[in-house]
Amino acid sequence: MTLTFATQTDAAIPLYLIEKDAGDALSALPKPAQTWASANGFDGGLGQCLVVPSASGEVEMALVGLGTAKARNRKRFGAVAARGKLPEGVYQLASSHSDQITQEFALGWLLEGYRFDRYATQSAPKAQLVAPAGVDATRLETIAGGEVATRDLINTPAEDMGPDELELAVRKLAEAHGATISTIMGKALLDQNFPMVHAVGRAATRAPRLIDMRWGDEGPTLTLVGKGVCFDTGGLNLKPGASMGLMKKDMGGAATVLGLAQMIMALGLKLRLRVLIPAVENAVAGNAFRPGDILTSRKGLTVEINNTDAEGRLVLADALALADEETPDLIVSMATLTGAARVAVGPDLSPFYATETTDADALRNGAQSSADPVWELPFWDPYEAMIEPGIADLDNAPKGGFAGSITAALFLRRFVTDTPRYVHFDIYGWNPTAAPGRPKGGVGMGARALLDALPDLLEL
Known about the structure:
single chain, Leucine Aminopeptidase, subunit E, domain 1
């Protein structure tokens, strides 16, 4: 699916965005339109939509409510819900607003058009928008394209999105943008020292692998690491059925870094990009890794397995160790890693950890400008003892139930020892309830914030 703006046309229908808290918000409209709006109870409430007819009964203009600043803050992209209520046609923004409001509305309009239609026809809204004056249409379309890629990958069930298919998706992305790709899979993972990727994925019928994509030959270095657990049964610590139902989304970290990589490459940013994805299935078989096993990682650190359902940090650890060997300017990992993060901040916010305060500040700024909310959690050093079991260097699932997201982040940080700047996102990757610009299903989290923050993060 491609999300784009409409081509400019003289027949475009004027579209007015009405802010409810902007004084006499309707005063800029022609008098007949003001009368029509008042008669129909239109006052600019968030998501309100009203078509104003001409004397001959045709669509003369359309009004969309932006609500109050408080309402917009509570429901980002809320105004674009009107897209599905507008009759078919090409619309052009006719009212003036702040750059933030205009850009957010334009991006939300594009994202509202997404439908996952691989298995069943899904009707998309037929109203089209000409790119508003002052917005970078190419950039917004590129961002929307990356989000489409992420959503499609997450929404695809594991039967059609295992390690093989995830690798194929990376290969297609690499081919489209002139990137290079290499893959280490199966027993070769042991030969080339990725023992934890192999251990987690060895019980599955589809071979585990480490996917490595590179792009760009100038500028600062950025390495993205995405958790690619294509399905997670929990292993021998088997999940109950209710918890297993959404586990096709457990490769949401990989899907999100691939969507971000697509944005970076399509925009031609001057940086050297590396994407690492450990792609596995956590399955149950006679050769599955067991509770009580002690694994030796690529870094040489030993890990006691106290829960086979805490597998994501194991495959990420080997990939992070590889990333760290090149000491890039910045390493970012993204993963649907812990239920603790979801409980702490819910499905909308992207919790993140940063070793440098300036990087955290840049991400907060990027989140605000891109309408992609994030929230910083701490690498809390006093909890380091919780991930040290004594019998091995590290514990993959500390007992007690406290600070589950923080201890997982501390675990991952142990594998980034030579690269000073490391950011980790513990995302949910799924929208449980349909919302404007965010249909129910897979969703990218943190990618837009990262993209907007890159100029500050890497001095681009």
